Structures are given as structure tokens and as C-alpha cells.
Automatic annotation (TrEMBL):
Name of the protein in question: DNA ligase D polymerase domain-containing protein
Residue ranges constituting the DNA ligase D polymerase domain according to the UniProt record: 21-186
Renumbered residue ranges of the record's region Disordered: 1-25
Pfam families: LigD_Prim-Pol (PF21686)
Compositional bias of kind Basic and acidic residues: 1-17
PANTHER family per the UniProt record, alphabetical: ATP-DEPENDENT DNA LIGASE, BIFUNCTIONAL NON-HOMOLOGOUS END JOINING PROTEIN LIGD
Organism of origin: Naasia aerilata
Length: 221
């Protein structure tokens, strides 16, 4: 992570201990090499719904031939990262992320929303937050500690752990032993690089059909 571009206002951790690296690297800051799929449950969204959506994400990634690397967020959601070649700017990667999110929403319309305004979202649904791919937007890095009473840690998991993981169990007290036993489950991420071209085709198709690309929000959610 040392060569990740820093957050614009902080070189190190957030006030709550979160380490928020950019999705681009210092060598090429304007071209992200990490597509981030952010599973953001609404306030009344049960974690089982997060699990179900993670499986749908996995299914669509498989069909695309993309390898996704899941982790708990340390909060109530999950993050799935995909390595991409640094060939597109933030806006294009965000368009690709939106097209992917819309496909997941089509497959799980009860569970997922991509609705732009928070006030228009059903709080029991999961928002697939494609905005985390916008420039200046960051999410907690793998292994960063969150400012929660239990000291939860954003923890890499295997796909076959999705149905059993309890994010509250992964804390500063437990993750060191887990890491010692399993190693870094995201260690292979650089070996599985996915070209987002098919997602940009999906985005073209959706936009031709009248779908809009909402403006980039100024603040993080
Ligand atoms: Mn999130």
C-alpha cells in the first residue's frame, strides 16, 4: 500500500484510525488501478442481505472473467476490490462501476438499489456505492481499524466465508491471529488484472437507453 496515492488532505490515517488510500498509485494518480465495489447497507438492511448481494456480485464478476477480493468493511458492509490496468480516468472507472452496479441491481432488485439520492433509497436495501470510484473518494483499507467500540477491522475474507462471517468478530483482538494463520488473503490481487472494456460497453448501452450518469458527489458518504 506504500505506493498508493494518499488522501488529499491527510498523509496517514483518518481521525478514527481508518487508513484511506486512493484507488490509484503515486506513479499514475489520475488513472485508478483498483475498481472498488462498495456494499453499503441502509440503516435497516440486515447483514444477510449483504451476504446475498456479495454472491450476486461474485456471480457477475465470474461471468466477466474478473477476480474479486472481498473484505468486511469494518462497519456494517463489505468491499470487493478488483485490480484493473491503469488505463482510464476516474470518470470512466466510475461509469464502469455504475454499469456493473446496475447489472447487480437488475439481478437482485429486492436487495439492491443504485438510486442516486439517499432520501429516495429504501433503508432496508443495500446501496451499491459506485461513487467510491470517483476522484478523491476513499474507503478504509484492508486491515485498517475502525473507530468502533470493539475496534473492528476491515478484514479480507475468502468467498466461501461470505455466508458465515460476522464482521463484529474481526477486531484488533482477533485479526492478528487470523492473519498469522491465513496470511494475507488479498496477496494475489496484482496477479488478476481485469480490463473494464466490457463494463464500458454496458455503460454505453445503458446511456443509449436513456440511463443517466449522476454527477460526482462532493462529499463522502
Ligand atoms: Mn461503504
Amino acid at each position: 500500500m506504500r505506493d498508493r496515492a494518499p488522501r488529499r488532505d491527510l498523509g496517514g490515517p483518518d481521525v478514527d484510525g481508518r487508513v484511506p488510500p486512493w484507488n490509484s498509485r503515486r506513479a499514475d494518480i489520475e488513472r485508478p488501478d483498483e475498481w472498488r465495489i462498495d456494499l453499503d447497507p441502509g440503516e435497516q438492511c440486515p447483514f444477510d442481505r449483504v451476504r446475498r448481494v456479495a454472491h450476486v456480485v461474485h456471480e457477475v464478476l465470474d461471468e466477466l472473467g474478473a477476480t474479486g477480493w472481498p473484505k468486511t468493511s469494518g462497519g456494517s458492509g463489505m468491499h470487493i476490490y478488483v485490480r484493473i490496468p491503469p488505463e482510464h480516468g476516474f470518470d470512466e472507472v466510475r461509469r464502469a462501476a455504475l454499469a456493473f452496479a446496475r447489472e447487480v441491481e437488475r439481478r437482485a432488485p429486492e436487495d439492491v438499489t443504485t438510486t442516486w439520492w439517499r432520501r429516495d433509497r429504501d433503508p432496508a436495501q443495500l446501496f451499491l456505492d459506485y461513487n467510491q470510484n470517483a476522484r478523491d473518494h476513499t474507503i478504509a483499507a484492508a486491515y485498517s481499524v475502525r473507530g468502533t467500540p470493539r475496534g473492528t477491522v476491515s478484514t479480507p475474507i475468502r468467498w466461501d466465508e461470505v455466508d458465515d462471517v460476522n464482521p463484529e468478530d474481526n477486531t484488533i483482538a482477533t485479526v492478528p491471529a487470523r492473519y498469522a494463520a491465513l496470511g494475507d488473503l488479498h496477496a494475489g490481487i496484482d496477479d488478476a488484472v481485469f480490463d473494464i472494456a466490457p463494463l464500458l460497453e454496458w455503460a454505453d448501452r445503458d446511456e443509449h437507453a436513456g440511463a443517466e450518469v449522476p454527477p460526482v458527489p462532493e462529499t463522502e458518504e
